[in-house]
Amino acid sequence: MDCIFCKIAAGEIPSTCVYQDESIFAFRDINPQAPVHVLIIPRTHICCADAITDENSDVVAKIFAAIPKIAKAEGLTNGYRVLTNCGEDACQTVKHLHFHLLGGRKLTEQMA
Ligand code: 5GP
Ligand code: ZN
Fold first, then answer.
1. Domain spanning 4-103: CATH 3.30.428.10
2. Which of 25, 39, 79, 95 makes the best surface tag, with the fewest CB within 10 Å?
């Protein structure tokens, strides 16, 4: 499969990794929208939030358990935002499930 985030998780495409374990991989966004902009992905290919099932959701729990550790390591002591874009209406550009971790400044109130 020609998936850029699968290749990043496998180390075939370089990235700036901030956290990894056997199930998940976290790296800096190439086009940061905030002082801290980390993408957290499952190593397994799940195309988007709409493809999360009872069978594959363990890795999503692992991602959310890692987020506070990553946030702490990034110095996000005053809060942060976690979001995922799913499908065309959300303007998802990379079709491998990823959670944006954004922070390091006061973010806008606007969500959409
Ligand atoms: P989406 O729009 O799908 O929610 O977010 C995709 C994100 O992936 C974007 O913020 C974009 O900057 C980031 N991105 C796309 N290609 C690469 C890449 O090759 N390396 C890194 N580090 N980030 C990427
Ligand atoms: Zn993938």
1. yes
2. 79
